[in-house]
Amino acid sequence: MVANWKMHKTVAQSTAYVRELCRLVEQEPLPERVEMVVAPTYLAIAPVAARVRVVGVGVAAQSLDPGREGALTGAVSGYLLFAAGARYAIVGHSERRQQFQETDLMVAERVGAALDAGLTPILCVGESALNRERGETEAVLHRELDAVLGDLPRPAPHLVVAYEPIWAIGTGVAADPAEANRMAALIRRRVDEAWPGAGESVRILYGGSVTVANAAAVFSESEVDGALIGSASLQVQDFVTMARAGGIHQEER
Ligand code: 13P
To answer: What pTM value is reported for the model?
Structure first.
């Protein structure tokens, strides 16, 4: 269960959120199979990581730049993020692809850089409304996956893939759970084709207008292992409620 705060929350607001998160999780532990991760802005990674470590909550960076250290003004590498306490990195979010011109090639490079730095990549893939209208959804997913899978010399043991249809992000219109499940199955198959045997262990998240109201339906699908949540994760109590909804279904499997 990943909370993507995007460009929200000051450092003070981020630490206040995780203070409350720790209190809620200590009060009532999360179901055993639920792994919870928060993705604050770069600024808040270190203070957030210092606070959540004790309750076993992970921290993700929302992106990263390739390389380790060097003369790259404004860049933040996986090495620096790991040292600050991050253990995951979201890579290839559609907002990065569309608004920061990240290409498939750049996404592949960042996934490799995350792995080199010891970060678990959370690779985002998903089609636009136009792709969907034109019946290109599967082709887009294959292209975005193949760019990364083909570029890595060996299977990445902890890879996480998030299916995030662009038309569902921030719109209040989530994908139909059955459709999300079909796409998750397609992703799993593609990973397994690239790296035989790895399909089973890859964790697949759904993202796009997940809320307290629809979280249980999203998790009831067999191929969906969790969620990448934007605006509904900004309220700590809601994020915990959604994580618990996920845990119930994980235990039922
Ligand atoms: P929303 O949950 O706000 O639709 O955002 C989804 C998302 O982009 C998570 O990365």
So the answer is: 0.96
Residues in the chain: 253
Q: Which atom of ligand 1 is nearest to the CA of 174?
A: 4
Q: Which atom of ligand 1 is nearest to the CA of 169?
A: 4
Would you place residue 158 in the very low, low, confident or very high pLDDT band (cuts 50, 70, 90)?
Answer: confident
What is the distance between the alpha carbons of residues 138 and 98, in angstroms, rounded to a whole number?
19
Nearest CA to ligand 1 atom 7: 230
Distance (Å, whole) CA 144 – CA 129: 16
pLDDT value at position 122? 98
DSSP string, 40-53: --GGGHHHHHHHHG
Local confidence band at 156 (pLDDT 50, 70, 90 cut-offs): confident
The domains located in the chain, with CATH, are 2-245 (3.20.20.70)
How much is the average pLDDT of 210-228?
Answer: 93
Ligand 1 — pocket residues by CB below 6 A?
Answer: 4, 93, 164, 169-170, 207-210, 228-232
Contact 207, 230 (CB under 8 A): yes
